[in-house]
Structures are given as structure tokens and as C-alpha cells.
Amino acid sequence: MNDLETDRNWHWQAVDSERNIARDYRLSFSRDLFGWYVVEQAWGRIGTEGQGKTLAFADATDALRHIAAVNARRMSARRRLGVAYREVPQSG
User: Fold this and answer.
1) Where is the WGR domain positioned along the sequence (predicted)?
2) Which of 16, 34, 45, 63 could covalently link to 83 via disulfide, CB atoms 3.0 to 4.6 Å apart?
């Protein structure tokens, strides 16, 4: 099976209790019934509803490019925020 046909989910958190940082970020990748590649993003403070957006891409390359950019931004958090995002293990 092609990886582009498999739904994927990522979940990161950045926590520094001394600085009152408790960030949560989720990203999911799927394909809808019309063949579009859907990327859903959700972010906010841990324990809150937060915000989100959904983007649809006709081309898988564009969707994967967007996912790579989001991942790069999360990985630069230590430099930007002073605390790194850590991947949260998937349950189930």
C-alpha cells in the first residue's frame, strides 16, 4: 500500500512549567472521497479547545510540502520559544 493512501497523525507538545508554556499541536493527513489530500492542523494551549484549520490539496506533493514546512516549524521551537516540541506517542 502506498503511504499516500494511509491516514497519518502527528501530535506534539511543548511544556515548560517554569515559564508557563504548555503548547499543543496536532497534524493529520488523509484523503477525502473526492481524491483531495486533506491536512488538518490544530493548536493551542494544552487542555483548551484551541484553534485549527483544514487545507485541501489536489496534488500530494503540495500536501507533503506543507506537512514538511509545519514539521520544520515545530522542530525550530527550541530556538524560537526556548522549549522544544516533543512528539506525543499515539494511543491505540
Assistant:
1) 13-69
2) 16
Per residue in 15-46, pLDDT (tens digit) is 999 999 999 999 999 999 999 999 999 999 99
pTM of the model: 0.84
C-alpha cell at 29: 493527513
Which grid cell sits at 92?
491505540
Q: Is the CB of residue 74 less than 8 Å from the CB of residue 12?
A: yes
Q: For residue 49, list its beta bridge partners.
A: none
The residue length of the chain stands at: 92
Distances (CA, A) of 38 to 6, 50, 53, 66, 86: 12, 20, 11, 11, 24
